[in-house]
């Protein structure tokens, strides 16, 4: 799951994403980028997240944990 999330994030932000990346690092990952990331996750993985989950989960590791809990 982590590899897939990293790939989706790399595509959304058009830069290299690592497992320790989070909002603000890279700078392309801002609040609008966060929404775009979760829309891409929903589109590619078919997993929907609530607004609160989108706000609270702002790192690759927390997003992976969230998505794994929804599988």
Automatic annotation (TrEMBL):
Location of the Carrier domain: 1-71
UniProt xrefs under InterPro entries: ACP-like_sf (IPR036736), PP-bd_ACP (IPR009081)
Annotated signal sequence range: none
The protein, known as: Acyl carrier protein
Protein source organism: Halarcobacter mediterraneus
């Amino acid at each position: 799951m982590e590899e897939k999330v990293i790939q989706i994030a790399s595509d959304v932000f058009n830069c290299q994403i690592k497992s320790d990346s989070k909002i603000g690092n890279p700078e392309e990952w801002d609040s609008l980028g966060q929404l775009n990331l979760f829309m891409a996750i929903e589109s590619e993985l078919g997993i929907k997240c609530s607004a609160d989950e989108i706000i609270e989960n702002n790192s690759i590791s927390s997003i992976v944990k969230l998505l794994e809990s929804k599988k």
